[in-house]
Amino acid sequence: QVQLVESGGGLVQAGGSLRLSCAASGSDFSSDVMGWYRQAPGKQRELVATVTIGGSTNYADSVKGRFTISRDNAKNTVYLQMNNLKPEDTAVYYCNVGSNVGRLGIRLYWGQGTQVTVSS
Predict the structure, then answer these.
(1) Predicted pLDDT of residue 38
(2) Can you say whether the dihedral through the CA atoms of 1, 48, 78, 85 is positive or negative?
């Protein structure tokens, strides 16, 4: 059983910054990919950023240059540093972990979400 707990969300003004954290715990598992998704009201969930265990990163075009994803493998934690926040960044942000299980594919785990609200 794997548990993902997000923290760091809140209310900020446009141009401000927040740092989200997601701590993974439970039985032994491989956090091959850790990342963040978000879902705004009335919209589908979308990928924000991912980072592999080797450090390769991927970002949505809308957040490139403003957000930075990182991970601490010793703590099994992934972070999302969000700078120059815009009102359109307002959403519930979800932590995600992908574990390679060989021929069975990739097993996905999800956090419960943390609210980020950016005011103008």
Answers:
(1) 98
(2) negative
Burial of 23 by CB count in 10 Å (0-12 exposed, 13-18 middle, 19+ buried)?
Answer: middle
Please give the Cα distance from 17 to 86 (Å, whole number): 10
Q: How far apart are CA 45 and CA 111, in angstroms?
A: 13
The one-letter amino acid at 68: T
Least Cα distance to 91 among 113, 120, 109 occurs for: 113
CA distance 117 to 98: 27
Residue 89 CB partners (closer than 8 Å, separation 6+) = 38, 63, 82, 116, 118
Express each pLDDT in 5-64 by its tens digit. 999 999 999 999 999 999 999 887 889 999 999 999 999 999 999 999 999 999 999 999
| Tens of pLDDT, residues 81-110 | 999 999 999 999 999 999 998 898 899 999
Token pair of 28, please?
Answer: 């032994």
Neighbours of 107 (CB within 10 A): 14
